From TrEMBL:
It holds the Pfam family PAC2. The lineage of its organism: Bacteria, Bacillati, Actinomycetota, Actinomycetes, Nakamurellales. InterPro entries: Proteasome_assmbl_chaperone_2, PSMG2_sf, Rv2714-like. Signal peptide: none annotated. It comes from Nakamurella leprariae. It comes from the Bacteria. Gene3D superfamilies: PAC-like subunit. This is PAC2 family protein.
Amino acid sequence: MTEPSRLRDPVMIAAFEGWNDAGDAATAAVEHLSLTWDAKPLTELDPEGFYDFQVTRPTVKLVDGVTRTVEWPTTRLTVCRPTGADRDIILVHGIEPNFRWRAFCQELLDVVMQQQVETVIGLGALLADVPHTRPIQVTGSAADEATAQRLGLITSRYEGPTGIAGVFQDSCVRAGIPAVSFWASVPHYVSQAPSPKATLALLHRVEEMLDIEVPLGALPEQAAEWETEVSQIAADDEEISEYIRALEEREEADEPLKMQSGEALAAEFERYLRRRGPRPGGGR
């Protein structure tokens, strides 16, 4: 493990490839943060005891077109210091392990304890019966009711099989580490990666949680293009179009708009402006 300099009140953001990552939306969010915030390597887990290499195979790459090197599938941790932030961020780009989940979570918890991580934010994405034409629903859970209310989480009522993201969050809570999870709902009829609209929704949640600006780059345009392309494809199939209309109608009936108080809206707008800061020339 690399021995980094002492981190400033670090927060950990984790996403895992596989069952927890419909449309690659969650891991794409972590990759976006890594590139945007110029993340540096921190450590990685030894994959030997966690992965079936016949399922998740290592890859061979050429170095300088001559030397071959083997890259093993594993979970990597990086650290970054966002501009204007008063804390550091540890990013976890993981792969759901095939074996020894409790030991896997313990190794991540060891890093959490060593680096004195204050909060763990888990990102995930799931397939759902939702229309691509509506804002992406983000459900989640928090360690306490006050945090859930502050973040406006739509509490998930799911009961059933879980993935490594859910197991890791539970491990954090049991160890006394505040942990929050955000799950984006990806339309099941357009589940192929990438899903930029879902990635964008997760990044908005990260921004709200950290109360700092997350540069979005070209993601808003990519999300708009994705929605347009899906709509064009659906328009050529009457059966799919009717199905999407039914989803839209059901969502409108089941999820009425929840009106926030003027005070809450004003507070959120002030946080938004503070994150963005003044723009050159006085514009926003």
